[in-house]
Amino acid sequence: MKFFIAILLSLAFAMVMGNASDEAKEKIKAANQKCQGDPKTAVDKTTLKAYIDSKGTAPAPENIGAHALCVSKELNWQNADGSVNREHLKERISAHVDDASKVDEILNECAVVKDNEEATARHLFRCFYKYAKDHGH
């Protein structure tokens, strides 16, 4: 695993959708690299690895909200104004989940606007990770 550890955040969504296509994996990788390349949105890889390995019990990297928001916007999960792009998320989920009620369940639980756009992005990642774990991905 030579990719940035932070890509694990992005892969959570891909995992809940099953096996991501090569194109989707490249989009995730490119989004992560772009956000890691900007000092305003980069996260410390060592701290992030410890956070992920601890399943969220260790302190989160200082810039995790900004990084999550950057990746989320790059993947079109959130619009430029930080609002949730429900239509895009539903389309992506529907491409991999056949049961319409399950699609709606995931969308309604994950695509929730929080106190600010960074909190919304963090919620999206945590929620998609939960569904990835629930489905053994």
UniProtKB/TrEMBL annotation:
Residues 1-20 form the signal peptide. It comes from the Eukaryota. Pfam families: PBP_GOBP (PF01395). InterPro entries: PBP/GOBP, PBP_GOBP_sf. Keywords: Signal. This is Uncharacterized protein. It comes from Hypothenemus hampei.
